[in-house]
Design brief:
The protein is α/β, with parallel strands linked by helices. It contains eleven helices and nine strands. The protein has two domains: 134 residues, Rossmann fold; 153 residues, Aspartate/ornithine carbamoyltransferase (Rossmann fold).
C-alpha cells in the first residue's frame, strides 16, 4: 500500500486510509526501535534536509533520529548563521538546497503556509514540522498512535484537549486528524483562546466548562499556556487559569476519568496547565509520546520517501 499524498503539509485533507497506513507503519517501526540495533536501510542513498527557521528541541531531534534510523543522509539547516540573515529569499534558499540534489525537506517556520509554498518551489518531498499557528501533523499522528496503543481504536474514543486552542498548531492538527478517524473530540479553554471558526471542525465539541469536557474522557491532553501572550490579555490571570482549567488528580477523579491517558505535547508549565503528580503519574503518556515521535516520523519518511523493500530488515 502507498499514500495518496505526495507531501505531508497538514492533516486537514488527509484521508482516513492514509492516516491508518501511517499509524500501522509506525507500529512496525516501534518494534525496530526496541531492537539492539535500531537501524534499517530503507532510506539509504536519500538525503533529507531539516530546514528549521524556528527553535525546536523534541521535533528536530526526533526527525534527525528517525532519518538516521532509516539510514538516510541528514543535513541540518538553521536560519541563524545562514544567507537568510543576508537577505536571501525563502525561494532562493530552497532552490539552492535542491541544486545540491536532495530528496526530502522537513521544514519548520514561524509563518503559516510556508510548507505549501515550498511545494511550488521544489520537486523535493515536503514534510511540515510546524508552520506558525497552522498545523503540526506529525505531532498529531504520534498522538494518535499513542492513543491507539492504549485504547485499541480511535473511533468513538472521547478525547479532551484543554488549553490554548487558538494558537496551537498541535490542537489544530489533532482536531482535523481525530475528527477524520471518528473520535469523540472535545476542546476546552477560555473563550478568548478558542478559534472563531470552530464550526469548520466537524465532529468537534467546544465547551469552556472543564468538568463537562473531562466527563468520562479516555484521553486528556493539556496544551502549553503560552505565557508570552499574557500581556495581550487573551486569557485570565495565571491563578484563575489554574483554578478553572488546570488538570489535577482531584478534577480527573470527580469527572470519572481517573484512568484517562494523560498527554501533553510539551514543554510543560508545571502547576499551571497540569499538576506535577498528574504529569508524572501512572497514566501519563508524555514521555511515551516522545518515544512514539521517532517511530511515527520514521513511518512518514519511509512512506513518502518511496522506500518499501527494506522496511522489515
Amino acid at each position: 500500500m502507498s499514500l495518496t499524498i505526495k507531501h505531508l503539509l497538514g492533516l486537514r485533507s488527509v484521508p482516513k486510509e492514509d492516516i491508518t497506513l501511517i499509524l500501522d507503519t509506525a507500529k512496525g517501526f516501534q518494534e525496530v526501535l526496541s531492537r539492539d540495533i535500531k537501524k534499517v536501510p530503507t532510506l539509504r542513498g536519500q538525503t533529507v534536509v531539516n530546514l528549521f527557521f524556528e527553535n525546536s528541541t523534541r521535533t528536530r531531534i526526533s526527525f534527525e533520529l528517525a532519518e538516521k534510523r532509516l539510514s538516510g543522509d541528514t543535513v541540518n539547516f538553521s536560519s541563524a548563521g545562514s544567507s537568510v540573515k543576508k537577505g536571501e529569499t525563502l525561494k532562493d534558499t530552497i532552490r539552492n538546497i535542491e541544486a545540491m540534489k536532495i530528496d526530502m525537506v522537513v521544514v519548520r517556520h514561524q509563518s503559516a503556509g510556508v510548507p505549501k509554498y515550498l511545494t511550488e518551489c521544489t520537486n523535493a518531498v515536503i514534510i511540515n514540522a510546524g508552520d506558525g499557528s497552522n498545523e503540526h501533523p506529525t505531532q498529531a499522528l504520534l498522538d494518535m498512535l499513542t492513543m491507539r496503543d492504549r485504547w485499541g481504536a480511535l473511533k468513538g474514543l472521547k478525547v479532551a484537549i484543554v488549553g490554548d486552542i487558538l494558537h496551537s498548531r498541535v490542537a489544530r492538527s489533532n482536531m482535523w486528524g481525530l475528527a477524520t478517524m471518528g473520535a469523540d473530540l472535545w476542546v476546552c479553554g477560555p473563550e478568548t483562546l478558542i478559534p472563531q471558526y470552530m464550526q469548520e471542525f466537524k465532529g468537534v465539541t467546544y465547551t469552556n466548562n472543564l468538568d463537562k469536557a473531562l466527563k468520562n474522557a479516555k484521553v486528556v491532553m493539556a496544551l502549553r499556556i503560552q505565557l508570552e501572550r499574557q500581556s495581550t490579555g487573551l486569557f485570565p490571570s495565571i491563578n484563575e487559569y489554574r483554578a478553572r482549567w488546570g488538570i489535577t488528580a482531584q478534577r480527573l477523579e470527580k469527572s470519572g476519568c481517573s484512568d484517562a491517558l494523560i498527554m501533553h505535547p510539551g514543554p510543560i508549565n508545571r502547576g499551571i496547565e497540569i499538576t506535577t503528580d498528574v504529569a508524572d503519574g501512572p497514566n501519563s503518556a508524555i514521555l511515551t509520546q516522545v518515544t512514539n515521535g521517532v517511530a511515527t516520523r520514521m513511518a512518514v519518511l519511509y512512506l513518502l520517501g518511496g522506500g518499501r523493500e527494506h522496511a522489515a530488515e
